[in-house]
Design goal:
Elements lengths: L1 E2 L8 E2 L5 E3 L2 E6 L6 E7 L10 H13 L10 E4 L6 H7 L7 E6 L3 H9 L6 E4 L5 E9 L14 E7 L16 E7 L6 H8 L4 H14 L7 H25 L9 H9 L3 E6 L2 E6 L6 H13 L4
Parallel strand pairs: 6-7
Antiparallel strand pairs: 1-3, 2-3, 4-5, 7-11, 8-9, 9-10, 10-11, 12-13
Helix pairs in contact: 1-2, 5-6
Length: about 300
């Protein structure tokens, strides 16, 4: 959600009792060792639903248009449960697109009933982020226990069960004292734990959204809706520059630094341009803790072949 003043065009009350907008964003995931590249940010009013298929289709279409043509046939679309709708999945599975998907699903009563009927021996241990067995978490395939006749052919529904951490409050969708999450995928092969592990990094999108808010998306400053759409494009451009700067110039943990940390350690350093011997030199304070990182980043950028 984005907060704004009452006079903003198309602004509406949010479900948090505030006032603003409800944009929908798509990011290219560069993996755990990198940042995320914004592909599309669609500005919507706060009254827009989180599971509106038309908005998901528009956002995905805009995102795919940003990718090189030869990569559009190798895309895995991941969403939260807002993308688990008939309309969106039917669009994704159109033969002309050849897309793959792994989207969250809302736990319905039918799923709850199916979960309770899964034999104890059918639950497979889930993996942690390192691909090792995670204690207290399991996955199961409940596709054959559901009526999926109205959904795209070949869709599978996989459920994750885990013990809540101490002090966690159970939700009304939790069953038998465990926390459950479900996702749908078109993957025909692969171990259940591997497919669930492939889906879980979708949560990195929440980090990308937080970064976008820290780069200008938190508060839309302009009055007109079209003007704020332009503002969203500017925010996307800023996020794009940060993502590729980190991919091309930084290494290690610095590739995952968020905007606030980048501003503190790299962008706010005092420097001076000095000319001498027909050369231009950047001089940084020797005591700055990250001066070496900055000079190394500049050297990497200069080493990139031009053209």
């Amino acid at each position: 959600m984005n907060l704004c003043e009452l006079e903003k065009q198309e602004a509406a009350p949010t479900w948090k009792k505030s006032f603003g907008f409800h944009p929908l964003a798509a990011f290219a995931d560069h993996g755990a060792s990198g940042n995320g590249e914004p592909l599309a940010i669609v500005l919507r009013t706060s009254s827009a639903g989180s599971n509106t298929a038309a908005d998901h289709i528009e956002t995905t279409r805009l995102a795919l248009a940003q990718l090189p043509r030869h990569l559009c046939r190798r895309v895995l679309v991941r969403t939260d449960s807002g993308g688990g709708t008939h309309g969106f999945l039917e669009w994704l599975t159109a033969p002309s697109r050849r897309l793959h998907y792994s989207v969250g699903m809302t736990i319905t009563e039918d799923m709850q009933d199916a979960v309770l009927k899964v034999p104890a021996g059918s639950w497979t241990p889930a993996y942690d982020g390192d691909g090792q067995v995670r204690d207290g978490a399991w996955v199961a395939d409940i596709t054959g226990m559901l009526d999926l006749s109205s959904w795209p052919a070949g869709m599978r529904v996989i459920v994750r069960k885990e013990r809540p951490h101490p002090g966690a409050q159970l939700r009304f969708t939790d069953v038998d004292g465990h926390r459950f999450t479900a996702f749908a995928t078109d993957a025909k092969k692969g171990q259940l734990a591997d497919l669930e592990l492939r889906h879980r990094p979708r949560a990195r999108c929440e980090d990308r959204i937080r970064n976008a808010k820290d780069t200008g998306l938190r508060n839309l400053p302009l009055k007109g809706f079209a003007q704020n759409q332009v503002w969203c494009e500017i925010v996307a451009l800023a996020c794009e520059l940060l993502a590729w700067t980190q991919l091309l110039a930084l290494t290690g943990a610095a590739r995952r630094w968020e905007p606030k940390r980048l501003r503190l350690r790299l962008f706010s350093v005092a420097g001076r341009l000095a000319r001498g011997g027909r050369r231009l030199r950047l001089r940084l304070a020797e005591h700055w803790p990250w001066a070496v990182d900055i000079t190394a980043a500049i050297a990497r950028l200069q080493a990139i072949p031009s053209g």
